[in-house]
Design brief:
alpha+beta; Rossmann fold; 2 domains; 5-stranded mixed beta sheet; 4-stranded antiparallel beta sheet; 11 helices; 13% strand; globular; binds the ligand O=P(O)(O)OC[C@H]1O[C@H](O[C@H]2O[C@H](CO)[C@@H](O)[C@H](O)[C@H]2O)[C@H](O)[C@@H](O)[C@@H]1O
Length: 298
């Protein structure tokens, strides 16, 4: 997911900035690419466009490499370990709330503030085993404090239940499967008088049988590739290659591509050492467009 700015009064920010682990919440999400990797990425995209290779076929060793910014794992808040020019464009467009706090609070005056947080690599550290990406108690307390003041949502590529199991805060909105599975709070902070009805929005539910089929196929096709892991994220299937030796990435990409070719309705996306086969949310799902679905539910 993308990085987000935490926008909160000082009393809320204090616990967040107290712990090095929580500090990443304000600056991490999608990494600023280095100039070299941006150039490499652009070159790859140009090559693919020239060869008429669309996103449906975009599972290759190169794309897996280009989309695996492991260097970010070790980039601490306000680090000087990578050059300023690498990050300047990113920071101009999406500045950290810590460096723009006054400007942001000024701009937010009179507006309704809603917090959108990523989970993996933001609220939790990136780890080898996706089932062990636990968040710290300090982070949980910080998110809980934020939710007392602002409607707060966690948006993730993971399935919603898994994110909830990690976070365990009933007062949040959870958007799983990159937004195709949204559930509102089941518990409301005491100071909120008008308790809204809990929202559940799953506009792509007609894709469930297809996704389960794809999950089983991928499990079968990848079982001979050591270190690979297939994760069922309900409206999305993720194929992890973090623990796969690089010499086997081509083979894994080939298997993903072969499964994808049988499902033209699905799209392929790349995350941090993970390829996702997912329902495109800009097409009509379950009879109506996703964004309209959200509006109707509100
Ligand atoms: O919500 P996103 O930012 O799009 O990321 C979704 C993926 O997150 C999880 O994978 C990532 O974190 C794992 C645990 O740290 C790590 O092992 C993996 O390499 C990362 O890609 C999740 O397991 C995936 O299913 C999601 O697609």
């Amino acid at each position: 997911m993308t990085r987000q700015g935490l926008l909160a009064p000082q009393e809320i920010l204090s616990p967040i900035s107290a712990s090095p682990a929580t500090v990443t919440a304000t600056v991490m999400g999608l990494p600023p690419r280095s100039a070299a990797s941006t150039a490499k990425y652009k070159k790859l995209m140009t090559h693919l466009e020239l060869h008429g290779i669309g996103s449906q076929n975009f599972a290759s060793f190169e794309s897996m490499k280009a989309s695996s910014p492991t260097h970010l794992r070790s980039v601490p808040l306000l680090s000087t370990s990578h050059s300023e020019s690498d990050d300047s464009d990113w920071n101009r467009r999406l500045p950290s709330v810590l460096s723009k706090f006054e400007e942001i609070t000024e701009a937010a005056k009179g507006k309704k503030i809603v917090m959108f947080l990523d989970y993996d690599g933001t609220l939790s550290p990136i780890v080898d085993d996706p089932d062990s990406a636990f968040m710290s108690e300090a982070m949980r307390a910080a998110v809980k404090s934020v939710a007392k003041y602002f409607p707060t949502a966690i948006v993730s590529g993971r399935c919603r239940d898994k994110v909830f199991n990690f976070v365990q805060l009933s007062e949040l909105y959870y958007a799983g499967s990159h937004g195709l599975d949204i559930k509102g709070p089941t518990k409301w902070p005491k100071h909120i008088k008008a308790k809204a009805k809990s929202v559940l929005c799953q506009p792509a539910s007609s894709f469930l049988p297809m996704i389960n089929e794809v999950y089983n196929l991928l499990l079968e096709k990848t079982k001979g590739i050591p270190g690979s892991k297939v994760e069922n994220n309900r409206f999305c299937v993720s194929v992890h290659y973090r623990c796969v030796e690089e010499k086997r990435w081509n083979r894994l990409a080939e298997e993903v591509r072969s499964v994808l070719s049988g499902y033209p309705d699905l799209k392929l996306t790349q995350g941090r050492k993970v390829s996702n086969l997912e329902v495109p949310y800009n097409q009509e799902v379950s009879g109506f467009v996703w964004s309209e679905g959200i509006e109707r539910e509100e």
